[in-house]
Amino acid sequence: MPRTLSRRSLVGAALTTLAATAVAPAASAAGRRHPDEDTPIRHIPLQGAVNVRDVGGYRAHGDRTVRHGLVYRSDALSKLTDADVTTLAGLGLRQVVDYRVPVELRYDGQDRLPAGLTATSRPVADNGLYAQMMAAIGSKDPAKQEELLGGGRAAAFMRSVYTQFVSDADNRTRFADTLRDTAYGPGASGALLYHCTSGKDRTGWTTYVLLRLLGVGEQSAVADYLASNTFRAAYDATVRDRLKQSGMMANPDLLIPLQEVRTEYLSTALDQVRTDYGSLGRYVSEGLGLDRHTLGALRDRLLD
Questions:
Q1: Beta-bridge partner residues of 73
Q2: Of the candidates 247, 259, 196, which has an alpha carbon nearest to the alpha carbon of residue 14?
Q3: Fewer beta carbons below 10 Å: N end or C end of the chain?
């Protein structure tokens, strides 16, 4: 007798299928430039992930530049092809940090990584964002989806997620651990990659803080954060289209505030930094517990 699938299994299977077939042409975004930034983003074109980038190349204070090939940011690596894994192997990775929480791993699966690499699980709470999105989609009920996500509620929920990046002690510990790993490096020349599911929020906050600590200007740090919208646009639009075609959502545009990064989200985190610590510097020293030695090691390792 065939096994009866639960609603959660059905939703997970449906979204896994959508994700597996909705990958945007990876090479189309390669080499695009940030607004007002002379250095093109080094996008890593893969078939199973669309938001994989080298964090290097930005100009910092004192006529210095962030080194290429030492830190990468990305979305989930669970859907990589064999060719993608080979590409990752060529990056010289020695550590991969996975910010996803258990519910994300249950739906999306573990990372596919080159031989010898195992992801460091460092879950950063998303305030129930992923579960709420899945519940809304899984209901297949337009009224319920509107109730959960409409009327500005999705954007408000995103702002609450960003508040917790700063206010939640466990989240701060995990961000701090990743920055320490970045400072001291996984080996003399090994590279580190950190990621979440979409590579835009938890990953985006880590990268924003990292770039600012390295002396990269605010405009460039924000532009790097917002670039996720460019790299994810085609993929996310395809997912929305297929959710509508499958009958799971009558108005999949309700998901757009969850799929995008927005300056208002980043500003919410920075407002919380000012409320709790007064400045980004004190957030780093008191909230993250990073001392001068660690900050010096970070700059020595990552700046030319």
A1: 53, 194
A2: 247
A3: N
